Structures are given as structure tokens and as C-alpha cells.
Amino acid sequence: MYYEFRKNTRSVKSTILHFQLRNLVWATSKHDVYLMSHYSVLHWSALSGVDTELMNVQGHVAPKEKHPGSLLEGFSQTKVSTMAVKDNLLVAGGFQGELICKHLDREGISFCCRTSHDDNALTNAIEIFNTSSGAVHFMASSNDNGVRDYDMERFQLCNHFQFDCPVNVSPFGYFFYFFYLFWKAGTIGYIML
Questions:
Q1: For residues 59 and 43, what is the distance between their CA atoms, to the nearest angstrom?
Q2: What class does CATH assign to 25-192?
Q3: Which residue intervals of 2-111 are DSSP H helices?
Q4: In tens digits, what is the pLDDT along the chain, a chain of 193 residues?
Q5: CA-CA distance, 81 to 124, in Å (whole number)?
Q6: Which UniProt keywords apply (predicted)?
Q7: For the purposes of burial, counting CB atoms within 10 Å of the CB of 107, is it exposed (0-12), middle (13-18) or buried (19 or more)?
Q8: What are phi and psi of 183, to 5 degrees?
């Protein structure tokens, strides 16, 4: 993939809490960038040069919509470990298994849930994708060794895959990989979405 830069700015600063957290900046077009800046998810437009706060997770975040399985009480002071933005949808995952979903064309948060109460529940990666039937889903992988598949229309958990080690997303596209195997055995096992 090649990039052609037309504008550079230092006025918008992303903050990444750990060097392995690489999924905290998303470019959905050549002029739309979504990023974490402290406790805020921002949209920056290269056309206008303006950044807009979409979500602030420093305080209390709770869903405005009611969906089965959604935590109506929400979360406070969520440390975001990963996010994905696609097709007017934003999904952010946290250090304690939090998932926060927002439709970018609607006010407020659409859905909140905690994937796990495991001590090691950090959300590693999120991928938004279309199923073969055209439905929009997202997958979230976690350090609790789980990969969860959610339907974005109803925010329902469709599948929960459990593995022997944590799973992460590969930089090569629509693959999840066992990073434990990569570091321990020098090999990568893939699951195709």
C-alpha cells in the first residue's frame, strides 16, 4: 500500500499508552482520520483542518440506545487499547474488556459491554467487516484468549471462540493470529474471518 501525503499538521496529537497499541489511528479516507488523544476519540478532517471530539471516555460513558446485553450503567475512565472505524461505525476496546460502540451519524453511544471479567481481559484488536450475507459485524480479540463476533445491527454476540492463548490481528488484513505462538515458537497460526 502506498501513501501520498498532501498535508502535514502537528496540531492534532495522538496519545498511545503502550508501543504495542498500534490500532489507535484510523484513516477511513484520504481526508478523514480518527485517533485517540488522551481520553478522547477525535475525528480530524484534512479538508477543514478541524478536529472534532466524538467520544470522551475520561468521565462516564453510557449507551443511549437499549440493546440486550448492553451495560446501561456504562463505564468510567476507560483506557482505550484498540479501536476500529468503518462505514460510519466506531468500536473502541479497553484495558478491562470494555467495548464501546458508536454510530457516527447518531448522537451518543449505541452499545457498551464488558467482554470478560478476567484479570487479563485487555482488548487486543477489533475489526469491522461485512459477512457473506452483507450484514455488518465486528470481531474483538482479547487477552482472555477469546475472539468474539458481534452483529452490529442488533449488537448481539453471534460467536465466541476460545483458544489456548491470546489472539491478535495481523497487519496483513483480515487474519487473526496467535501472538503467543509467534513469540514462543516462531510460527503464526491464522484464523480467516
A1: 19
A2: mainly beta
A3: none
A4: 455 666 667 777 777 766 666 688 888 988 899 999 989 999 999 888 889 999 999 999 999 999 988 999 999 999 999 999 999 999 999 999 999 999 999 999 999 999 988 888 899 899 999 999 999 999 999 989 899 999 999 999 999 999 888 877 665 554 454 444 444 444 444 444 3
A5: 7
A6: Membrane, Transmembrane, Transmembrane helix
A7: exposed
A8: -80, -35
